[in-house]
Amino acid sequence: MRVVIQRVRNASVTIAGKEYSRIGSGLLLLVAFEDSDSIDDIKWLCKKIANLRIFADVEGKMNLSVMDVGGEILSVSQFTLFASTKKGNRPSYIRSAKPEIAIPLNDQFNIRLGEIIGKEVKTGVFGAMMDVKLVNDGPVTIVMDTGNKE
Questions:
Q1: What sections of 52-148 are H helices per DSSP?
Q2: What integer pLDDT is reported at residue 150 of this predicted model?
Q3: Where residue 121 sits, what CATH number does that domain have?
Q4: Distance (Å, rounded) from C-alpha 23 to C-alpha 12?
């Protein structure tokens, strides 16, 4: 799994001109899966994201998690995170999990993360053309990959 984590002041997903999801202060996650991803990868990544201390404390230091600040999470599936650009100019997405694998993993990821933070994780729609808007806070952007757990 690969996730781009962005600390945001707000974020939203619009599909076919209609707003689908919106959050205030919190995290926007862009999430991609590989065929080899497992529930263990989901558990590890959800725990890391929920406890990631990237929000400012009273002294202005990044020392608080999304749970500590009562933030929200918007999770958007994005298979293009596994794009390979080694050959030619057209990216290859061969490493990205096919929908029959990625959809159940994506659902489990969002459910698990919601259980950990104690609130619903807002989402986009898997496979849909989405307009994602955000106000990046900081900016703070972090990339995590379960292939680099150790």
A1: 99-117
A2: 65
A3: 3.50.80.10
A4: 6
Here the tokens at position 68 are 């500590």
Report pLDDT for 94.
Answer: 84
User: Are the C-beta atoms of 11 and 135 separated by less than 8 Å?
Assistant: yes
Token pair 């781009």 is found at: 4
- φ, ψ of residue 113 in degrees (nearest 5): -65, -40
Domain region containing 76: 2-148
Residue 83: the pLDDT is 87
Q: How far apart are CA 69 and CA 15, in angstroms?
A: 29
Q: Which residues are catalytic?
A: 78-80
Q: Which two tokens stand for residue 35?
A: 């065929």
Mean pLDDT by 10 residues, the chain (150 residues): 98 98 98 94 97 97 97 96 88 90 96 98 96 96 88
The number of folded domains in the chain is 1
